[in-house]
């Protein structure tokens, strides 16, 4: 059973079905009816007017957002363990034309106003130092931790005070919202977020993420950048269809809850082994190499995070009956 | 009936079916079994060892290839009417970090050794002028013209003599090969092509093109660039599945032949109106604004190319019965 | 005697002397008293508040200006024969991160509202085409032609109407102003120019040009870009000193008049050979290879412009007695 | 008396005189006799064939070198306190088109094979992580510490083993060599350095640094990049003249020794206050805000490095009589 990454999970049947339903003639690129409906559909979800663009990857969503928020000669503050820093092969630098990621600290890969302020205050305000232009936070974080609305709002307030744009990497935004039980608006624009990478692929989608601009005037340049990056797929209706299928009937929340539930089951079995509180669908455990080997011998696959640490990721399609054998195996290590 | 663009056509049922068949658990990115099989499958097709990467758009394929062939301070020779020059919003400049497109002439958007040489010889060889590093030709061209193997080979020979890389934009490569009836190898690596953007989307695919490196040492850096551009989709198996479905049983040739056949029917009806010989699936006609309006009034949609000129593009899914009404309408204008 | 380029001329003694006078202790970069005086000094000259930055080359001035006026995904309209297109090795693409130069026509390398409009109107306003963001004109042009204030104003009006920034490459701005006899203001900001590359090096300077922002809010980002490009020299006072020495007593006009006078002498001798009206310090002549060889045999050095065409450039330090022998030689060819 | 930065010091009279001597007619850019003599002159100094380019700033030298050693998708390992990381406003990212600086540790801003290895071994070798392509070390470092030949050689060996290029930022290379008393060759190419930014400006020059390629095949692309960056000054002979004047009679060593001597005098007076061993011309001291104020009240200017720390930099033109009053003031704090 695979707990390696939610990227490995299959696509939700509703998403596949939507592709079939979209399989008629329509205009190319994003001129089709499905693509054109995205703004309205996401505006409804977020209870405010937004501009919503499909893109084929989370890296693309993140980096288009950063390019919209930060000039080439600027900097983006993020956590030292952020995906944009460690796992995108320099995509932020490519899309922003060389902006600098400025690394701040924080427990569980969460930034706080205090850790951000410490970093900002260390940067001399002159032409010799790259000056910060934006903040990027990840919700849920790389350690499966979730920012609550008030936490985001505190960062949003700081961003506003310092004149910085605020981006949220929401590759697992659905898991965060499912955990919080709040409106998606509460943890985004109401808390000061300007742009959101809203992930669907890990959560049952196939090849479409949504890039949401709450600060809508950022979108015009981004439409040019999306094309210029080879990201304006010529049959865009098949991406829009995926997103719409995930929104229909709040499927995105349903699948995220399923994945979170699985992680909670594992967390319950892990006891003292837990390295981080489990708030989304990732579980980090202390486990010796020998223990890890024993789990693998039982057919469970997962990621060796660091020395003596393993990462388990649950997916939307894993039912309790898929999870419990691993929970048992952990409990009896 | 839509003759606006082959991008507007639906996806072939075999491609949709392949997505369903791929819908099981596998490794993320391009580590899955389907993605791993691409090199072998395309090597078989091209009768030589190639490296084959899926990418989600033709612009991405083109520009990754150009970045592999040309440094930021170099130039790429292409036709004045090339897609990379006119229709990709500066994507070549983005991916190459500012290389310059150098525009050459040629009938039907085809370059020739003579027109290339004229351009090359006009460039002083000093540090003040951008120096050419690569050639890019399009087969079939923006005007639906096809380079025969000998024509490509003559350009390939020139490229070799001048120390230039050679890229082929094959957004409609299938249509070109279907027209030529040759081996795909004859019009690519055997003729000196280093990298090919092998288009499938216009020809029945959904969201996957293949970037083929005949000069395989170009691929390693490209793997990094693909990731860095946000093009390494996390569920890559669904892109690989599309390409494999198109290769199975030479479906790609079958669909291309269908589109070409439709264009030939239109060409036959067009007589003196034809602006370019019809060799692929595009038909350019002289038509006054009034004539265009009359065609549209009959329900035919198409692109106004230039003053007094219209472009008709046929698609893989259009049978003769879909084409003949337009052919009739043209004949009786 | 050298008529190859005004770049080959020596430095004016007043500039050298100014370096010696600046040779005391002061703050590094541009914090010194001389650098700090530039804004005021150039504001006086231009009769309006400007921001003035020293840079060590005309290419640097041009490309910092273009980067301030055009985003990476945009385009800059310039003449087909512009220095930024042909002689800067892609520096505009480097500084703008891949913006596209869009080439317009015009006699004597001069753009006109008509030629600009023809180009602009050919660009479809969609995300597939690079959209223009700025115009760049050269005064005096590559053919030694001068835009009069009314000509610039007509272009400035067009730029405003179309929402485009306007840059003037003034590598030989001094020669243009000397020819026009107008206020520098008349041919720049009063005519709609946003940024000017004000050349001094060809005109008696050593290694300092001035980048003048009439639209002053463009300067802040440019200060970052200047540093980021390695152009913020650490002993900037020696660059400021050069500029100030050239401004003192209108030395820049005196040297430009001297060069223009030399060119006029040559033009007078050239008669029917003249390819362009001589308005600055460049003279383009019809001359066969044999005639060119005969001039060279007499000790005159110059540039072979094109087949059967030569370019003669006069310099600030050439007195009539240096020019007349060449004038005689031309007259007696 | 100014101990703020050696960038504030005046230019050596021999350099000024050389400008006057160069003030004759010659070819533009780097085609003049002086520029052409640089390769030979620096080859002699380094006892091997090198390619030597003048550039107008240390940032330019550093970043051209890094662009030659690292592709846009790669990384450059440097010290956390390196000038390229902290003081060049993202110039490395600009010149390399977005390569990532990878920060390693080390006492006195010196990298060691151990600290480099720790960093390298933490980087997973896959397409998700930026892969290192080069190392950059600074000699003397930001804390005035000097790498001895054996220390560089150990790093050079590691670089070779790992397939990394090796750059040395030698903004104060002269001070390092003066301290070491070795041949410049010993601490550069004999120890594995591929490219050196050889600083002259802080050491008595005006506006010329030398970029030295020991791995000469890196130079060809760099000539294009230098032009493309606006760094190919049109009257290059005045930069070459400065470098040649500094090399004549080993003036560069003489001036560096003078600056080092001054720093040694201060170090001798500082006793327990010293934060770093003084090996070049920088002295870092513990000093309370009150103590710093008292020194300033006596007319000494310097940089507040960090809380409770000050930085004093001595310059080539400061004689012991200029230094001793500060030494006394420190001793009697």
TrEMBL record, chains A, B, C, D:
<comment type="subunit">
    <text>Homotetramer.</text>
</comment>
<dbReference type="InterPro" id="IPR015421">
    <property type="entry name" value="PyrdxlP-dep_Trfase_major"/>
</dbReference>
<keyword id="KW-0663">Pyridoxal phosphate</keyword>
<keyword id="KW-0456">Lyase</keyword>
<dbReference type="InterPro" id="IPR015424">
    <property type="entry name" value="PyrdxlP-dep_Trfase"/>
</dbReference>
<dbReference type="GO" id="GO:0016829">
    <property type="term" value="F:lyase activity"/>
</dbReference>
<dbReference type="InterPro" id="IPR015422">
    <property type="entry name" value="PyrdxlP-dep_Trfase_small"/>
</dbReference>
<protein>
    <submittedName>
        <fullName>Beta-eliminating lyase-related protein</fullName>
    </submittedName>
</protein>
<dbReference type="Pfam" id="PF01212">
    <property type="entry name" value="Beta_elim_lyase"/>
</dbReference>
<comment type="similarity">
    <text>Belongs to the threonine aldolase family.</text>
</comment>
<dbReference type="InterPro" id="IPR001597">
    <property type="entry name" value="ArAA_b-elim_lyase/Thr_aldolase"/>
</dbReference>
<feature type="domain" description="Aromatic amino acid beta-eliminating lyase/threonine aldolase">
    <location>
        <begin position="3"/>
        <end position="285"/>
    </location>
</feature>
């Amino acid at each position: 059973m695979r707990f390696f990454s939610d990227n490995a999970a299959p696509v939700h049947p509703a998403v596949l079905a939507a592709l079939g339903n979209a399989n008629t003639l329509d205009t190319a690129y994003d001129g089709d009816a499905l693509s054109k409906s995205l703004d309205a559909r996401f505006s409804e979800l977020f209870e405010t007017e937004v501009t919503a663009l499909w893109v084929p990857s989370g890296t693309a969503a993140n980096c288009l957002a950063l390019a919209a928020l930060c000039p080439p000669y600027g900097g983006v503050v993020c956590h030292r363990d952020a995906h944009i820093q460690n796992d995108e092969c320099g995509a932020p630098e490519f899309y922003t034309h060389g902006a600098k990621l400025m690394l701040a600290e924080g427990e569980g890969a969460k930034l706080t106003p205090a850790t951000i302020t410490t970093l900002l205050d260390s940067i001399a305000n002159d032409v010799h130092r790259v000056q910060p232009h934006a903040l990027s936070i990840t919700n849920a974080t790389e350690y499966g931790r979730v920012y609550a609305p008030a936490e985001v709002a505190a960062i949003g307030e700081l961003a506003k005070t310092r004149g910085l744009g605020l981006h949220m990497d929401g590759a697992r935004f659905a898991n965060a919202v499912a955990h919080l039980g709040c409106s998606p608006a509460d943890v985004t624009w109401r808390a000061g977020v300007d742009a959101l990478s809203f992930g669907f692929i890990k959560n049952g989608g196939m090849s479409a993420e949504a890039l949401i601009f709450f600060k809508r005037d950022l979108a015009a340049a981004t439409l040019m950048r999306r094309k210029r990056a080879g990201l304006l797929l010529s049959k865009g209706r098949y991406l829009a269809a995926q997103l719409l299928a995930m929104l229909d009937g709040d499927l995105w929340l349903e699948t995220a809850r399923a994945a979170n539930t699985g992680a909670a089951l594992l967390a319950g079995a892990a006891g003292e082994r837990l390295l981080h509180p489990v708030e989304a669908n990732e579980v980090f455990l202390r486990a010796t190499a020998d223990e890890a080997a024993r789990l693998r011998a039982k057919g469970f696959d997962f990621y060796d995070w660091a020395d003596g640490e393993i990462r388990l990721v649950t997916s939307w399609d894993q039912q309790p009956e898929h999870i419990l054998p691993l929970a048992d195996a952990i409990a009896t290590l």
